[in-house]
Write a structure and sequence with these properties.
The chain is of the alpha+beta class. The chain has 2 domains: 35 residues, no CATH class; 53 residues, no CATH class. It contains 3 helices and 3 strands. Bound molecules: zinc ion. Zinc ion (ZN) binds next to loops.
């Protein structure tokens, strides 16, 4: 079962998962971040001026490579800020 199927299972089959530590409302956003989403073309002008081309679809922070620091940045499979899986394909 992949993260997307698991999420659908929880949301649509109305499975209740309760443990002393975590509840469904807390699980859903965590699973959602495991489902890769396309990065968004950077819309925030100060970030594009700093060399960023893409932003995270969840938290809108810069992701991927920076054209001024390509030695240190890359197409990271996860957002370094919030953990959102990024689909670079
Ligand atoms: Zn993010």
């Amino acid at each position: 079962m992949n993260p997307k199927e698991l999420l659908e299972h929880i949301l649509f089959a109305k499975i209740s998962i309760f443990t002393p530590m975590i509840e469904v409302d807390e699980i859903v956003p965590i699973i959602k971040k495991q489902i890769p989403e396309k990065p968004i073309k950077c819309r925030y002008e100060p970030l594009t001026r700093m060399g960023w081309e893409y932003e995270c679809p969840s938290c809108e922070k810069a992701v991927g490579f920076n054209k001024f620091a390509f030695d240190y940045t890359d197409e990271d499979p996860y957002c370094p800020s919030c953990g959102q899986a990024i689909d670079w394909e």
